[in-house]
Protein backbone atom coordinates (compact mmCIF):
# COMPACT_ATOMS: atom_id res chain seq x y z
CA UNK A 1 0.00 0.00 0.00
CA UNK A 2 2.88 2.35 0.81
CA UNK A 3 4.39 1.74 -2.63
CA UNK A 4 1.03 2.63 -4.21
CA UNK A 5 0.82 5.96 -2.39
CA UNK A 6 4.44 6.76 -3.19
CA UNK A 7 3.77 6.01 -6.85
CA UNK A 8 0.70 8.28 -6.87
CA UNK A 9 2.69 11.05 -5.16
CA UNK A 10 5.44 10.81 -7.77
CA UNK A 11 2.83 10.97 -10.53
CA UNK A 12 1.22 14.09 -9.07
CA UNK A 13 4.62 15.76 -8.71
CA UNK A 14 5.44 14.97 -12.33
CA UNK A 15 2.25 16.53 -13.68
CA UNK A 16 2.84 19.81 -15.40
CA UNK A 17 1.17 23.09 -14.56
CA UNK A 18 -0.17 23.12 -18.12
CA UNK A 19 -2.04 19.84 -17.56
CA UNK A 20 -3.48 21.15 -14.29
CA UNK A 21 -4.74 24.28 -16.07
CA UNK A 22 -6.22 22.10 -18.80
CA UNK A 23 -8.03 19.92 -16.26
CA UNK A 24 -9.49 22.80 -14.23
CA UNK A 25 -10.69 24.79 -17.24
CA UNK A 26 -11.88 21.58 -18.91
CA UNK A 27 -14.17 20.76 -15.99
CA UNK A 28 -15.40 24.34 -15.86
CA UNK A 29 -16.04 24.39 -19.61
CA UNK A 30 -18.15 21.21 -19.63
CA UNK A 31 -20.11 22.31 -16.55
CA UNK A 32 -20.86 25.64 -18.24
CA UNK A 33 -21.92 23.80 -21.42
CA UNK A 34 -24.34 21.68 -19.40
CA UNK A 35 -25.78 24.91 -18.01
CA UNK A 36 -25.94 26.37 -21.55
CA UNK A 37 -23.74 29.27 -20.49
CA UNK A 38 -22.04 31.14 -23.32
CA UNK A 39 -18.92 31.29 -21.14
CA UNK A 40 -18.28 27.64 -21.94
CA UNK A 41 -16.57 28.68 -25.18
CA UNK A 42 -13.88 31.13 -23.92
CA UNK A 43 -13.13 28.80 -20.99
CA UNK A 44 -12.87 25.87 -23.39
CA UNK A 45 -10.37 27.81 -25.52
CA UNK A 46 -8.02 27.92 -22.52
CA UNK A 47 -8.46 24.19 -21.86
CA UNK A 48 -7.90 22.97 -25.42
CA UNK A 49 -4.88 25.26 -25.82
CA UNK A 50 -3.31 23.68 -22.74
CA UNK A 51 -3.97 20.20 -24.09
CA UNK A 52 -2.22 20.94 -27.37
CA UNK A 53 1.00 20.93 -25.34
CA UNK A 54 0.00 18.02 -23.09
CA UNK A 55 -0.78 15.71 -26.03
CA UNK A 56 2.36 16.73 -27.90
CA UNK A 57 4.44 15.54 -24.96
CA UNK A 58 2.42 12.29 -24.81
CA UNK A 59 2.87 11.69 -28.59
CA UNK A 60 -0.89 11.63 -29.09
CA UNK A 61 -0.61 13.70 -32.25
CA UNK A 62 -4.18 13.22 -33.48
CA UNK A 63 -5.50 14.52 -30.16
CA UNK A 64 -2.98 17.36 -30.29
CA UNK A 65 -4.27 18.36 -33.72
CA UNK A 66 -7.85 17.92 -32.53
CA UNK A 67 -7.35 20.40 -29.72
CA UNK A 68 -5.63 22.86 -32.03
CA UNK A 69 -8.69 22.62 -34.29
CA UNK A 70 -10.96 23.04 -31.26
CA UNK A 71 -9.40 26.47 -30.66
CA UNK A 72 -10.85 27.60 -33.99
CA UNK A 73 -14.18 25.78 -33.69
CA UNK A 74 -14.74 27.15 -30.19
CA UNK A 75 -15.14 30.58 -31.72
CA UNK A 76 -17.61 29.10 -34.22
CA UNK A 77 -19.57 27.51 -31.38
CA UNK A 78 -19.51 30.79 -29.47
CA UNK A 79 -21.08 32.57 -32.45
CA UNK A 80 -23.61 29.77 -33.09
CA UNK A 81 -24.89 29.79 -29.52
CA UNK A 82 -25.35 33.55 -29.62
CA UNK A 83 -26.74 34.06 -33.12
CA UNK A 84 -27.47 30.61 -34.62
CA UNK A 85 -31.19 30.60 -33.85
CA UNK A 86 -34.03 31.86 -35.97
CA UNK A 87 -33.61 35.53 -36.78
CA UNK A 88 -30.02 35.48 -35.50
CA UNK A 89 -31.21 34.89 -31.94
CA UNK A 90 -29.85 32.53 -29.29
CA UNK A 91 -29.76 28.93 -30.55
CA UNK A 92 -32.13 26.49 -28.84
CA UNK A 93 -31.57 22.79 -28.08
CA UNK A 94 -32.75 20.50 -30.89
CA UNK A 95 -32.35 16.85 -31.86
CA UNK A 96 -30.02 15.65 -34.59
CA UNK A 97 -31.62 14.62 -37.88
CA UNK A 98 -31.11 11.01 -39.02
CA UNK A 99 -29.42 11.95 -42.31
CA UNK A 100 -27.19 14.46 -40.54
CA UNK A 101 -26.11 11.81 -38.03
CA UNK A 102 -25.21 9.16 -40.61
CA UNK A 103 -23.25 11.63 -42.72
CA UNK A 104 -21.17 12.44 -39.64
CA UNK A 105 -20.67 8.73 -38.89
CA UNK A 106 -19.39 8.06 -42.42
CA UNK A 107 -17.06 11.03 -42.24
CA UNK A 108 -15.76 9.84 -38.86
CA UNK A 109 -15.01 6.35 -40.23
CA UNK A 110 -13.19 7.77 -43.26
CA UNK A 111 -11.25 10.19 -41.06
CA UNK A 112 -10.24 7.40 -38.66
CA UNK A 113 -8.96 5.14 -41.42
CA UNK A 114 -6.98 7.77 -43.30
CA UNK A 115 -5.46 9.53 -40.30
CA UNK A 116 -4.78 6.26 -38.49
CA UNK A 117 -2.92 4.90 -41.52
CA UNK A 118 -0.84 8.07 -41.83
CA UNK A 119 0.11 8.19 -38.16
CA UNK A 120 0.86 4.46 -38.03
CA UNK A 121 3.13 4.49 -41.07
CA UNK A 122 4.75 7.92 -41.13
CA UNK A 123 5.08 9.09 -37.51
CA UNK A 124 6.13 7.77 -34.12
CA UNK A 125 2.59 8.25 -32.78
CA UNK A 126 1.30 5.85 -30.15
CA UNK A 127 -2.14 4.17 -30.43
CA UNK A 128 -2.53 5.55 -33.96
CA UNK A 129 -5.95 4.15 -34.84
CA UNK A 130 -7.45 4.51 -31.38
CA UNK A 131 -6.18 8.06 -31.21
CA UNK A 132 -7.62 8.78 -34.66
CA UNK A 133 -10.99 7.24 -33.82
CA UNK A 134 -11.41 9.23 -30.61
CA UNK A 135 -10.37 12.34 -32.50
CA UNK A 136 -12.95 11.72 -35.24
CA UNK A 137 -15.78 11.05 -32.79
CA UNK A 138 -14.79 14.07 -30.69
CA UNK A 139 -15.00 16.26 -33.78
CA UNK A 140 -18.46 14.87 -34.39
CA UNK A 141 -19.53 15.59 -30.80
CA UNK A 142 -18.00 19.07 -30.82
CA UNK A 143 -19.84 20.04 -34.00
CA UNK A 144 -23.11 18.70 -32.59
CA UNK A 145 -22.53 20.66 -29.39
CA UNK A 146 -21.91 23.86 -31.36
CA UNK A 147 -25.31 23.27 -33.02
CA UNK A 148 -26.87 22.48 -29.62
CA UNK A 149 -27.90 18.98 -30.66
CA UNK A 150 -29.14 17.04 -27.63
CA UNK A 151 -27.40 13.84 -28.73
CA UNK A 152 -23.98 15.49 -28.56
CA UNK A 153 -23.88 14.46 -24.89
CA UNK A 154 -24.46 10.80 -25.76
CA UNK A 155 -21.56 10.91 -28.22
CA UNK A 156 -19.38 12.52 -25.57
CA UNK A 157 -20.31 9.78 -23.11
CA UNK A 158 -19.18 7.08 -25.53
CA UNK A 159 -15.88 8.69 -26.44
CA UNK A 160 -15.08 9.66 -22.83
CA UNK A 161 -15.12 5.99 -21.80
CA UNK A 162 -12.47 5.22 -24.41
CA UNK A 163 -10.41 8.26 -23.46
CA UNK A 164 -10.25 7.12 -19.83
CA UNK A 165 -8.55 3.92 -20.95
CA UNK A 166 -6.19 5.72 -23.34
CA UNK A 167 -5.04 8.29 -20.80
CA UNK A 168 -4.59 5.68 -18.08
CA UNK A 169 -2.41 3.68 -20.47
CA UNK A 170 -0.37 6.85 -21.23
CA UNK A 171 -0.03 7.53 -17.48
CA UNK A 172 -1.89 10.83 -17.78
CA UNK A 173 -3.76 10.02 -14.61
CA UNK A 174 -5.04 13.51 -13.88
CA UNK A 175 -6.43 13.73 -17.39
CA UNK A 176 -8.01 10.27 -17.01
CA UNK A 177 -9.68 11.50 -13.82
CA UNK A 178 -10.84 14.56 -15.75
CA UNK A 179 -12.68 12.31 -18.20
CA UNK A 180 -14.34 10.42 -15.36
CA UNK A 181 -15.70 13.78 -14.22
CA UNK A 182 -16.67 14.50 -17.84
CA UNK A 183 -18.80 11.33 -17.78
CA UNK A 184 -20.75 12.69 -14.83
CA UNK A 185 -21.08 16.17 -16.35
CA UNK A 186 -22.12 14.76 -19.75
CA UNK A 187 -24.89 12.79 -18.06
CA UNK A 188 -26.06 15.93 -16.28
CA UNK A 189 -25.79 17.91 -19.51
CA UNK A 190 -27.94 15.42 -21.42
CA UNK A 191 -30.80 15.53 -18.92
CA UNK A 192 -30.58 19.32 -18.47
CA UNK A 193 -30.68 19.92 -22.24
CA UNK A 194 -33.50 17.36 -22.69
CA UNK A 195 -35.56 19.05 -20.00
CA UNK A 196 -34.95 22.46 -21.56
CA UNK A 197 -35.88 21.19 -25.05
CA UNK A 198 -39.12 19.66 -23.77
CA UNK A 199 -39.97 22.85 -21.90
CA UNK A 200 -39.37 24.89 -25.07
CA UNK A 201 -41.57 22.53 -27.10
CA UNK A 202 -44.38 22.77 -24.54
CA UNK A 203 -44.28 26.56 -24.35
CA UNK A 204 -47.19 28.32 -26.10
CA UNK A 205 -46.30 29.95 -29.42
CA UNK A 206 -46.53 33.74 -29.22
CA UNK A 207 -47.07 35.90 -32.28
UniProtKB/TrEMBL annotation:
Keywords: Cell membrane, Membrane, Transmembrane, Transmembrane helix, Transport. It is found in: Cell membrane. The keyword Transcription does not apply. GO terms for molecular function: nicotinamide riboside transmembrane transporter activity. Its main location: membrane. It is a multi-pass membrane protein. GO terms for cellular component: plasma membrane. InterPro entries: NMN_transpt_PnuC (IPR006419). It comes from the Bacteria. The chain crosses the membrane at residues 12-32, 39-58, 64-81, 101-119, 150-166, 172-191. NCBIfam families: NMN_trans_PnuC. Required for nicotinamide riboside transport across the inner membrane. Belongs to the nicotinamide ribonucleoside (NR) uptake permease (TC 4.B.1) family. This is Nicotinamide riboside transporter PnuC. It comes from Pontibacter indicus.
Amino acid sequence: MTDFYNSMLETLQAMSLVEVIGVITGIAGVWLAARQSIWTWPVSVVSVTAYVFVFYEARLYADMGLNAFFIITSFYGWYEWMYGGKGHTERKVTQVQQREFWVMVMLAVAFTGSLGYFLDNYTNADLSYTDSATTAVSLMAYWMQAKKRLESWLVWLAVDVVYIGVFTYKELYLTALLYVIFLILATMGYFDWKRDMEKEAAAPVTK
